[in-house]
Amino acid sequence: MKTLIRRLLKENLLKEGVEIWYHGTPDVRGLEKDGGFTERTLDAEYIDDMEAYHKIQAGLKVAREGGDDNEYHRLLDMVPKLKKTFTIRKPIFITDKYNVAKTYADASRSFDYQNAEEKVLKVSVKGGRGATIVATGDRFRFIDLGKVKRGFLGAGVSDSDFDDVFNKFNFHMRDKTKIKTDSIAIIGEYFGFDYIDVVGVLDSYEGGSTKSIVRMVFNPSDIQIIK
To answer: What pTM did the predictor assign?
Structure first.
């Protein structure tokens, strides 16, 4: 009877247009104890006054090249004073491919790996304000910046606003042709998106060549586990 109910529930969801997604966890016990996904946060540093930051960087260059150690360290001590903190909800990652989620359901990734209960969960997600980044062929953890920017511009973020936020949160990066997953999440949260779809990425815990859609969901209550 329980099997029949689960099958009918799934069929109902499909008929209503609810998409099925997958989440791979190395240890499902915490999720089961909490009754589902819970909110966790991440602190991100940024610099609001980029003009002052660039002036300090220019001064550091001059002091370094001139061998002025006192001035160099004086300027270096000014940088932390420019930094601020922005707290985001850590995104929950789901995928449209079962076999991709399965690579993350590896008990060896768990702290308590000897007792861990790995599992791939079927989930559905509420709608909301989303952005779609077409990143075909890129590795999920490090995506071409141009592709990310086009995704946010297509979702209504202005060119100048994107550049401003990207530079503030990535002030420390020398190579600004690529962007890390955490930075995409920060930008998404900053602009108030509920989820971000990254389409066509090569995502797997062990590497691989499977292209999938990875969705980053910020509000845990937007995710429903399908039994």
So the answer is: 0.84
